[in-house]
């Protein structure tokens, strides 16, 4: 359990660091996105967390009804989380436009869309790495853990 909490905190810290690397709307972000180099740390952490959650589920052996209810709640949050993400991205684009207008700079819609959508742009870190996307990341791990646990139970029963 301590390892799950530790890895979750490390993941949250990585998301937070990515988030704070984003420049303010209207500021130059330089070339490329160095935060992407650290993104690959999340992949092994996620895989380890899936196995740890699966192990924890084997220890506590929850009822299938409870697990299916949790899966439904996760899917419900995914719907909300994606909606929130899309709304946040649109609001961020508007903030970038306002910053350019405030500095009396020309507003190029295509450039702003690229700036706020491109994974290679540091400006998009605030969109891709925030509390909502961290929660989506963690819920995806729990979702996969539950699915693996349920599959293992069904194969063990046969």
Report on the structure:
- With 158 residues, this protein is mainly alpha-helical.
- The chain has one domain (2-157).
- Helices cover 77% and strands 0% of the residues.
- It is built from 7 helices and no strands.
- The protein has helices at 2-20, 36-39, 42-60, 64-102, 109-117, 125-128, 131-157.
- Helix 1 (2-20) packs antiparallel against helix 3 and helix 3 (42-60) packs across helix 7 (131-157).
- The longest helix is centred in the middle third of the chain and has 39 residues, at 64-102.
- The radius of gyration is 19 Å and the shape is elongated.
- The chain starts with a helix and ends with a helix.
- The mean pLDDT is 83.
Helices, strands, pairings?
Layout: H1 2-20, H2 36-39, H3 42-60, H4 64-102, H5 109-117, H6 125-128, H7 131-157
Helix pairs in contact: 1-3, 1-7, 3-7, 4-5, 4-7
Question: Brief overview, please?
Answer:
With 158 residues, the protein is mainly α. The protein is built from seven helices and no strands. It has one domain (2-157).
Observed structural traits:
158 residues; 7 helices; mainly alpha
Domain module count: 1
**Which geometry do the CA atoms define?**
elongated
Please state the CA-atom Rg, rounded to the nearest Å. 19 Å
Query: Percent of residues in beta strands?
Result: under 5%
- Average of pLDDT: 83
Q: Helix tally?
A: 7
The helix-strand sequence is HHHHHHH
Count all strands and give the number: 0
Roughly how many Å apart are the termini?
A: 30 Å
**Portion in helices:** over 70%
Low-confidence stretches: none
């Amino acid at each position: 359990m301590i390892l799950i909490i530790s890895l979750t905190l490390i993941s949250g810290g990585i998301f937070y660091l990515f988030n704070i690397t984003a420049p303010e709307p209207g500021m130059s972000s330089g070339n490329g996105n160095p935060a992407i180099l650290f993104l690959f740390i999340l992949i092994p952490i996620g895989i380890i967390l899936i196995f740890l959650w699966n192990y924890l589920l084997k220890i506590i052996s929850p009822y299938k009804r409870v697990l299916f209810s949790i899966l439904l709640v996760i899917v419900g949050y995914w719907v909300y989380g994606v909606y929130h993400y899309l709304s946040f991205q649109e609001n961020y684009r508007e903030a970038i436009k306002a910053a350019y207008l405030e500095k009396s700079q020309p507003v190029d819609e295509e450039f702003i869309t690229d700036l706020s959508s491109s994974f290679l742009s540091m400006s998009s870190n605030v969109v891709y790495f925030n509390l909502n996307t961290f929660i989506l990341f963690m819920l995806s791990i729990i979702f996969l853990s539950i699915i693996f646990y349920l599959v293992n139970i069904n194969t063990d029963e046969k």
